[in-house]
Predict the 3D structure of the following.
Amino acid sequence: MDWFFQQLINGLGLGAIYALIALGYTMVYGVLRFINFAHSDVLMLGAFTAFYIAPKIEKLSGSQSALGCIMVFILAAAVCAIIGMLIERLAYRPLRNRPKLTVLITAIGVSLLIEFTAQNEKVFGAAPQPFPQLLPEHALHWGALVVSSNDVLTVSVTTVLLVAMWWIVQKTRIGTAMRAVSYNQQAAYLMGVPVDRIISFTFGLGSALAAIAGVLYAIKAPGIEPLMGVQPGLRAFVAAVLGGIGNLPGAVLGGVLLGLLETFAGGISGLSNYRDAIAFGILILILLLKPAGLLGRSSVEKV
Amino acid sequence: MKPTRLIFATAAFALSMLGLAGCKSGGGNTIKVGEFASLTGKEATFGTSSHEGTLLAFEEVNAAGGVLGKQLELLTEDDQTKAGEPANAVNKLISKDGVVSILGEVASSRSLEAAPICQQNKIPMISPASTNPTVTQEGDYVFRVCFTDTFQGAALANFASGTLKAHKVAVLTDVKSDYSKGLAKSFKEKYTSSGGVVGIELDFNGGDKDFKGQLTAIKSDAPDAIFLPGYYNDVALICIQAKQLGMNIPIFGGDGWESESLLSIGKEAMEGHYFSTHCSPDQGTPEMVRFVESYKKRFSGKFPDAMAVLGYDSARVLIDAIKRANTTESAALRAAIASTKDFSGASGKITLNANRDAMKALVFIRINAGKFTYHTTVNP
């Protein structure tokens, strides 16, 4: 039984990161109805921002302090929010009134551009870099179970951010505007909603989430490289679809579910080889039964 | 078409053919040798090290006047640690650059991609450090200057039962890598035949970042040690996560562990683990001492690892063979490489057997106080 609960904890720790990335995907989709494929690369940029500023912050705040760690998170999120807004301004906004496919392909292009620029030796280089330890790490024992303090951090950060995102979208003025843009962009514009600014804000918020996920991912696996975002990005995209794309709690549910599936499959002899196949197979099953995802409402897409 | 244009076009065509012909004959004053290596990407330290070793060998020979009265020219292609790229690189080196031989790669999967191409074109290929037995089985033009995993797997099995006194070992394999799967197979054969019990066997995908699912299952199986035939990036993350789960059993693996990145990423999680490799810079033979000195001088104080030593040896075995063959004609060069006997390489004496594999000793390294420390030598 210990084995089962330990896997549950491992799966939650991994799923929480997927959930955080999926939140960003789903927010942008909710407002713009398009998948921002560069999201996983913003995650990587977040990890590298933290990698470069952490030693400087350490000098100010002392080694592995909570304050320093929070500052690293905030700075990485801020830098990536700006990058996200820039990507939207330069690559997506000029194409806003073109067919959706054009923007989608541009997003793939932006993603590849970032990945391969970053792999250049004069930028980050392709070899993995050792990510510094931001916080002292503890193992919390509970009977035979071990919980890493990093996993506790990941799960709590994800929970707090989910609540915060829900609050922003549902309870604030800007959130109301976001929902209006999502519902009908043209009508919102005619009602005086500054559509450009709202979309910019959504990208900034989504990219900040990606940056935080990137730093958490780098803490979990402290070897960071320019392609580190690809695998979790793909899984988070799947998680967002699984939960019902455009739906915030759905993204988190999907992320946690995918993390659990992957962890349990990884721990079974003979199946560990197929852990992605199992996770994605179950996704196909769920989508066959509920095409709009677990928490999504089905709607007819206007073409 | 106006006549003047026609003349121009014909002239241009003729000129370009002349140019091509010039390329093909490989004339001029240099002997071209091709190299493919993972200079960037996930296993960049492998390629960088072996390339630096190879480059040093070429520079030394050229400084001493070259071979057959000609200078050697090393043409290096980066395969970016990506499947598919070695084939492109080697095709280009052979058909466009017209090289007389190919040196590379460290990783077996990528050598296996290039080997059939070299065999088909009858261009001798020497791999510095690919240990999977199937690499040289691709044909009689494919060689290596290192031992095979049949030998390494057996040595690791003896190490597990002898030095570690492990009665039950869990095996964690990288399903993406031919090297990992081959080494796991030969380890298991020897270990079970000498009375050991292979416990739980799990897989991962090279490049994964979360291994806690597998490690938790291993923990509940309670083995005495974990055999982890993987490459250094994955190994470092696996050791970190094993430590997080409170596992104190030794983890051991093969020569894929050898990289400075193992220590810089894994840090204290690597303490007390073991791996086998080709040679240790501390082994103190005169050839090794001389190599370490000139390598440090050439690459601003950098300390060489086993891949650098093997890169150097692969180039020197080739150069020695060109000298003995007294030509770069492919059949004669192939025969000269095949008859390499008691060549004193920096990593040790190199003799190629009938399977075109080197018969060489192996060393065990223990990670101690953040350093690779020499543990024992195993002779073939």
Q: What stands out?
A: Chain A touches chain B through 42 residues (CB under 8 Å). The CA atoms of residues 118 and 124 of chain A lie 5 Å apart. The longest strand of chain A covers residues 139-142. DSSP finds eleven helices and four strands in chain A.
